[in-house]
Structures are given as structure tokens and as C-alpha cells.
Design brief:
Length: 339
């Protein structure tokens, strides 16, 4: 069978489980916005509410977080006239293809997923079945659109690799060349933004202390305070990047600076060699406020008009279904389900 040509197409998703962080912005959203200009056939961005409920979400909080995340994507430059922006639960084909993939993926594959192990900890038996099957729904999100490129932060790499395994097994089992082998796109200096209090842990929405993360809705004073109080070592910035080896907190701040100013960590080090933290941290705080301030202002404005966000998500869902529905229909035919 000859391989069909898959049109270059981007898909990515974000959970509405709490507010957005600088990690989400630099590791994903900022690049999603840039990729709209990179000549892809389509760019499809999804607020994955069905993924969020794999752990308990208070319904009112889930609703608020969905508006906030959608507002964050719009305020960061995702343009609904150039991209498809929607929330997952409005396109039921995601859950339907997710079920097919539950029957393709193997239990052994799920057992290897480090995110499940980290989230479940010693309490695996008490987690929802949905949390365990999470990666197969994620594969469905991506493959429902025959997406070829998935821009994500480093922590999602294993899930995108599993998506390739699922596509390959489906194609082999049914003797077809139907699903593409998707590439993760993990590029740039901030693919793993670390916690500001502990440079060995990822910055996340759910970390214990608010001081360890920058939230996209933090005001200028809070951003400045958090960067100034960020943990560092006493050494000044080195002459070369190698000098940041074994200095995770220092490396993190340099990477964040590089990502916010669209340059490389090497260039940041060259410009700031020998600088002490008393000089570098305020410069970083000013840069972050200059870049994030306009986004958070716009987010607040958008969040005041929930009806408009709902309208945009509904329109996006209709557009998403136009692509998803024929792909699901063909999948059902391949599997032998009578329609
Ligand atoms: P989520 O909601 O945890 O995060 C959304 C995106 O932000 C990135 N990210 C980070 N990048 C760098 N440094 C950090 N500290 C950081 N924290 C978060 C994540 O890598 C991600 O790209 N499983 C996904 C959601 C998902 C998805 C998909 C993604 C569902 N279906 C299909 C891509 C394609 C997740 O939990 O992302």
C-alpha cells in the first residue's frame, strides 16, 4: 500500500486545571502563536477539558479555568480566523476515537508513562481510570486531525512518542497507512521551565507555593517580587554556558530570559557575563513585566465577555468537527463497525 501524503498540520492542547503559568506560555502557547505564520495547512489548538477531569475538578472552577485558558490563548496571539481554537468536550469525536485507541494501546505501554507514575505516586490504585488512559485520549486528540506536528514542552515528549506507537500499531493491525507518525516539536530555550524555589522541579500550576511560579495573571509587582526572591546560588553569571552546569536555578533564569527576549542562552550569557544577581534579576523582572503585562491586561479584558469566548469556542468546535468527523468515520469503517 502506498503511503498517503499527510499535509503538515499542527495540533496541541492545554488543560484548564488552574491558571496559566509562565511554563505553559514559554513551553507551548508562545510557540503556538508563532507557528501560525510557518506555512502549515492548519494550526489547531484545544482546551482539553476532558483531560482536566481525570483528576477532580470543582465544576465552577473548571468553567472559570476554561474561560481563563481560552482568554490566555487569544491574548497570546492565537487568532481564531487563522487557527482553530476550541474546547475538547464540544467535539465528541475525541472521546470516540479515544475509545478505539483504548483498544489498540497496551496496558504495558500505559505502565511506562512517567507522568502517571509521578501524579499517582504511591496511590495508583486510587486514581481514576481516566488518568491511566489519559495518553490514549491524547493520541486521539492528535490523530483525529491527522496532525503531523505537536508543539509541546519537554514533559509531554513521552506522550507524543506513545501517540506514534498507537498510530503504528493501528496501521499494522488493520493493514492500512491511515494515521501519520506525528513529530513532537520541542524547540527553544524554555522547554522545561523550572520552579523558582527549586531548580530541579518543573514549574507547574499545582505546586505548593505561589512564589515558585509566575502566573500569567500576576501583576507587575508580584512578577518583580517573585523573580527577585527566586532562589539562586551566590556566584555571578559565568563567561560561558558551560559555567551554568550544575547550577539549575541560575540556568533556569537565563533560559527564561532568553525565551522572553527571543534569543539564545549563549547570547544572554555573552551579554551578561560577570553580572551579579542584584543586576540580572531586576533586568529579568522588567523584561517579564514588559512581555507579560500586555497579555494579562488583554486576558482580563477578554474574560469580562464570557459570551464572546463561548461564541469563539463554539465556532472553533464546528470547524474542528469538519476535519474530525470524516477521519472518525473512516476509522470506524477500517475497524469494521457497521454504520
Ligand atoms: P498541560 O496542560 O500540562 O500543559 C500545556 C503545555 O504547557 C507545557 N508546559 C511546560 N513547558 C515548559 N515548562 C514547563 N514548566 C511547563 N509546564 C507545562 C506542556 O508541555 C504543554 O505543552 N497532556 C497535555 C495536554 C494535551 C495535549 C494533547 C498536548 C492533551 N492532549 C494533545 C498536545 C497534544 C498537558 O497536560 O499539558
Amino acid at each position: 500500500m502506498t503511503a498517503p501524503q499527510f499535509t503538515p498540520r499542527v495540533f496541541s492542547g492545554i488543560k484548564p486545571s488552574g491558571g496559566l503559568t509562565l511554563g505553559n506560555y514559554l513551553g507551548a502557547i508562545k510557540r503556538w502563536s508563532d507557528m501560525q505564520d510557518d506555512g502549515y495547512d492548519s494550526t489547531i489548538y484545544c482546551v482539553v477539558d476532558l483531560h482536566a477531569i481525570t483528576v477532580w475538578q470543582d465544576p465552577a472552577d473548571l468553567r472559570d479555568a476554561t474561560y481563563e485558558v481560552a482568554a490566555g490563548l487569544l491574548a497570546s496571539g492565537i487568532d481564531p480566523s487563522r487557527s482553530i481554537l476550541f474546547n475538547q468536550s464540544q467535539v465528541p469525536e475525541h472521546a470516540e476515537l479515544g475509545w478505539i485507541f483504548n483498544c489498540v494501546a497496551r496496558v504495558g505501554w500505559m505502565n511506562r508513562m512517567t507522568q502517571f507514575k509521578e501524579k499517582a505516586g504511591k496511590n495508583a490504585e486510587k486514581q481514576s481510570l481516566g488518568l491511566y488512559a489519559y495518553p490514549s485520549l491524547m493520541a486521539a486528540d492528535i490523530l483525529l486531525y491527522h496532525a503531523t506536528h505537536v508543539p509541546v514542552g519537554e514533559d509531554q515528549k513521552q506522550h507524543v512518542e506513545l501517540t506514534r506507537d498507537i498510530a503504528q500499531k493501528f496501521n499494522n493491525d488493520y493493514g492500512v497507512d491511515f494515521f501519520p507518525l506525528t513529530e513532537p516539536v520541542i524547540e527553544g530555550p524554555a522547554m522545561r521551565v523550572m520552579n523558582l524555589r527549586d531548580g530541579t522541579k518543573k514549574m507547574s500550576k499545582s505546586g505548593e507555593s505561589d512564589m515558585e511560579r509566575i502566573n500569567m495573571l500576576d501583576d507587575a509587582d508580584t512578577i518583580s517580587k517573585k523573580f527577585k526572591k527566586a532562589r539562586t546560588d551566590p556566584e555571578p553569571l559565568p563567561e560561558t554556558l558551560e559555567g551554568l552546569k550544575d547550577r539549575p536555578e541560575a540556568r533556569n533564569l537565563v533560559d527564561i530570559y532568553a525565551a522572553l527576549s527571543d534569543t539564545t542562552p549563549e547570547a544572554v550569557i555573552t551579554e551578561n557575563a560577570g553580572a551579579g544577581w542584584g543586576q540580572f534579576k531586576p533586568a529579568l523582572a522588567d523584561l517579564a513585566v514588559a512581555k507579560l503585562g500586555p497579555i494579562s491586561d488583554e486576558m482580563r479584558r477578554l474574560m469580562d465577555d464570557k459570551a464572546e469566548i463561548e461564541r469563539l469556542l463554539r465556532t472553533g468546535s464546528d470547524k474542528a468537527r469538519e476535519i474530525a468527523s470524516p477521519i472518525l468515520r473512516r476509522t470506524y469503517e477500517i475497524v469494521g463497525l457497521v454504520r
